[in-house]
């Protein structure tokens, strides 16, 4: 027969329960503090990751996106990519890309670096990619940290630097060749002029047919000499050997004057072939007016060749960002193949038939515009036309382009 619990027994049980509940409450409080601290650290880590200017993605070993930072959302415009395959998000492809830096980092268990080009908003952007394995305690990859750095601007500047180097080197060569050609060319032209002046004295000594032949041949020699002299002059300009006289230039007036120079050529064309759309409030620029006219002439001649007897040519001027003055020469002609766009400003590259051009017009334009602290860009669509945009800095009163007029041709 069991004995009934005493008062002391009941007090002991309640005391034990009370101690248990107190200990439980203490543990709960400690867990709450730990959770708050953990949440604070998570927010701090996320803030650090969001502060990284590179796109950051954490991937599983089977290419699923685990987490991303804010830069990813800003660049790709996808709010919740978690759970989707990376190749679907980045390339809209059903299978992993080739070569895939994630596969290399996972299989080799080491950092993999790769350069990739993504088409975004109609523009190709260059990304420097780093895939790093995040290892578990056994040293094996458990996740992949995927970093993407946009190096598009760096690549563009690098390409411009290499192009400038190439143009400078060829410019020195071109100037030397031009000077060497100029001397015999002057002699040929001079002797041809002398023969042409003496030809009337021989009228009674030779028959009419022979005299006409001599006159025709001398005319061709002098015509080709003048053409060669123009080429030499362009080579000298390209080689930066001609004087540079800086002054205030009204770009609108310069465009109008240049079009007037082509009056004889235009009078045989349609009246609406060349249209002017000029911003009358355009600020002045600082530069060499004669060299800038040469740029406009070269661009117009190219537009004439592109349009042939069809289409129109529009010359526009406008201001951009309060710092730049833009001249665009637009034609609705044949356009330029995409594979030729990167070569247009290279010396001696031309798409014209033999005898129609030597390929130094656009390279000379590039050289002149670069010397003025500006840029020249081209956009073209095959069969629809081309636009050449010349970008020049507006005149600043606190500093001018340095003149080196003491350098002669």
Topology:
Blueprint: H1 7-51, E1 55-59, E2 65-68, H2 70-76, H3 86-91, H4 101-108, E3 112-120, E4 123-135, E5 141-150, H5 152-198, H6 208-238, E6 247-249, H7 251-261, H8 263-266, E7 274-278, E8 285-287, H9 289-307, E9 313-320, E10 324-331, H10 338-341, H11 361-371, E11 375-381, E12 385-393
Parallel strand pairs: 7-9
Antiparallel strand pairs: 1-2, 1-5, 3-4, 4-5, 6-8, 9-10, 10-12, 11-12
Helix pairs in contact: 5-6, 6-11, 7-9, 9-11
Task: Describe the structure concisely.
This protein has 409 residues and is an alpha+beta fold. The chain contains 11 helices and 12 strands. A 5-stranded antiparallel sheet has the order 2-1-5-4-3, sandwiched between helices. It has a 5-stranded mixed sheet with strand order 7-9-10-12-11.
What structural keywords apply?
409 residues, alpha+beta, Beta-Lactamase, Heat Shock Protein 90, 3 domains, 11 helices, 12 strands, disordered C terminus
Description:
- The chain has 409 residues and is an alpha+beta fold.
- A hairpin with a 3-residue loop joins strand 11 (375-381) and strand 12.
- The chain is built from 11 helices and 12 strands.
- The strands form 3 sheets. Strands 2-1-5-4-3 form a 5-stranded antiparallel sheet, with helices on both faces. A 5-stranded mixed sheet has the order 7-9-10-12-11.
- The chain is elongated, with a radius of gyration of 37 Å.
- Helix 5 runs antiparallel to helix 6 (208-238) and helix 6 (208-238) packs parallel to helix 11 (361-371).
- The protein has helices at 7-51, 70-76, 86-91, 101-108, 152-198, 208-238, 251-261, 263-266, 289-307, 338-341, 361-371; strands at residues 55-59, 65-68, 112-120, 123-135, 141-150, 247-249, 274-278, 285-287, 313-320, 324-331, 375-381, 385-393.
- The termini are far apart.
- It folds into 3 domains: 51-150, PAS domain (Beta-Lactamase), CATH 3.30.450.20; 153-242, Orthogonal Bundle (Helix Hairpins); 243-402, Histidine kinase-like ATPase, C-terminal domain (Heat Shock Protein 90, 2-Layer Sandwich), CATH 3.30.565.10.
- It is 47% helix and 21% strand.
- The model is unreliable at 353-359 and 399-409 (pLDDT under 50).
